[in-house]
TrEMBL record:
PROSITE patterns: DNA_LIGASE_A1, DNA_LIGASE_A2, DNA_LIGASE_A3. Residues 1-24, 613-647 are annotated as: Disordered. One of its GO terms (biological process) is Okazaki fragment processing involved in mitotic DNA replication. Its main location: nucleus. Coiled coil: none annotated. It comes from Malassezia cuniculi. One of its GO terms (cellular component) is nucleus. This is DNA ligase. GO terms for molecular function: ATP binding; DNA binding; DNA ligase (ATP) activity. The lineage of its organism: Eukaryota, Fungi, Dikarya, Basidiomycota, Ustilaginomycotina.
Amino acid sequence: MGAQATLDSAAAAPRKTEPKTAKPGGAAIPYATITDTFSLVEATTKRLEILSLVTDLFRRVISRGGGPTNLLYTVYLCINRLCPDYEGLELGIGEGLLVKAIAQSTGRELVRIKKDLEAKGDLGLVALASRQNQPTMFRMQALTVPTVFHGLKEIASASGSKSQDKKLAVIKRLLAACAGDESKYLIRSLEGKLRIGLAEKTVLVAVAHAVMLERGAAEDELEAGTNVVKAVFSELPSYDIVIPALLEHGVDGLRARCRLTPGIPLKPMLAKPTRGVGEVLDRFDGQEFTCEYKYDGERAQVHGYTRDGRLEVRVFSRNSEEMSGKYPDLVAQMPRAIRPGVDSFVVDAEAVAWEPGADDASPGRLLPFQELSRRKRKDVQADNIAVRVKLFAFDLLYLNGEPLLHLALSERRRMLREHFVPVANEFDYATHCDCSTTADMQVFLDASVSSGCEGLMVKMLVGPDATYEPSRRSINWLKLKKDYLAGTGDSLDLAVIGGYYGKGKRTNVYGAFLLATYDEDLETYQTVCKIGTGFSEADLEAHYALLHPLEVSKKGYYDAGEAKPDIYFEPRVVWEVKAADLSLSPVYTAARGAVDARGISLRFPRFVRVRDDKAPEETTSPQQIASMYRAQATAGTRESLEDDEYW
Ligand code: ATP
């Protein structure tokens, strides 16, 4: 379909009125422009075709004018978000409310909608069919991108006692104005997943391509420009800031305009797993590297900036969520660790549960992760805190107006020590040792484990490979956990998507669970294993309480393979699990096609803990599972040591 044809297809839909003009200088984009592209994207699996469809959509939006808002809203609707992650406004409306809205806006009975849902497994399709069967009495004004975006925002931010009613009213209003395929995508957006196979990575590349092409760039300039946009975005992951800058100035100078900014969390650098001291030494042979304790807590990106003469401190999680409400004590402690002359900073650190010593002579001790995970995630009252938290800083990413990412770790560490001071029971630098022999490393590893750490992080210290690489799982950072050494391998973080009713005395709870990995390219969950061991009775009861409200009537967009749980859940909960090893499986679908036509499964999986610092899209990925499988097959070689990039 040609560009113009798609853009104007809203006119082809049975509507009475044309969309209103939005801002001076540009017309509001019809919502149908986006949903037409969604249909085309959904109909193909070819990555390049998807990229070109979305680029084409963005080009048409840009050429309509109207300032950055039109493109910004379009991008947000494509990635199904409403604002940057750290602002915490999320879609994901429960099935019950949506079923009610569809029933009320189409005049159909609730039971019939539920029956359709059983049969079709996709509420978007149910909404579409319900609308199509509805006699049209009068035509509403056609939906536009701003109307839908603001409607979704209104729904997501509704709070208070009447919030369900408010949400219902807006959903009904939007549904009533839907034409063509719009209701299908509107409902899926509200559910929190578009399921058209459009990954955010592709959207970012499409934005870069569209802006460059609209500014007259040649095809052979696209790759370099896109790399600039990706690098900028992993440092400053905010479309609100990057898109207006791109539209106004293009790619040239974008790096200087959009830099790491305190208050906006960057995507953290991640580490590759290794299987032993030998492998680490192989990797860093002849290079200057450093070993640090790997603390067993929660990643904390601590930002500080001065506003109206006062230092504000904010803490962000590994997945860019604001955690200042969980750690009011950290926020209060941080200023005491800062030397005079610091007015803005970003420190990368681990927040660890801590037991202070009885007096100044006894230093206190590290407590395991579980102690911290008992804390509420929000609105913790400082005077109500049972377990203290101590911050162990391992990196300095920004200081006094300047990003430091391009500097070598040796330099960043020097500046960290120059500008921040240890405070008893509150703040310290991560313990490190710049050792270079197997024997030294082994001694340091043992020391780390006996003081309550998980093992070591080994990092490139000097030279161009020692920079901070946001959003990358890089071979310049390796993790060496005590568990790998015991031969049990790394653990996996997996989403809980299904449950099996218990037997015997476990009939009131689920006795086993279906776990899955999220494939972000295909936007689907692939099953990995059934797990029924490692749970105490109390665990099972707690899991039931958490998971029961997440039950959904159909597997929806899960790629479940031959797995047949009694019930499916919305993907909200992530668990860390361990296994004896990985094996190929005709039943489960994880990483299917990566190493074999069969999927990869876990043998003898065991529950370790709940990972409430990870979103369900942040499970161990199918690619990582495939490389763990390969690494197991090629144990002792370095085949698995390649960088993974987020963008
Ligand atoms: P990943 O973050 O690699 O996906 P994960 O969240 O399960 O996996 P781990 O495999 O335990 O985490 O290892 C990486 C994490 O270790 C970091 O994200 C950080 O929270 C923690 N960590 C502890 N000490 C350090 C350190 N000295 N340097 C870097 N990270 C550290």
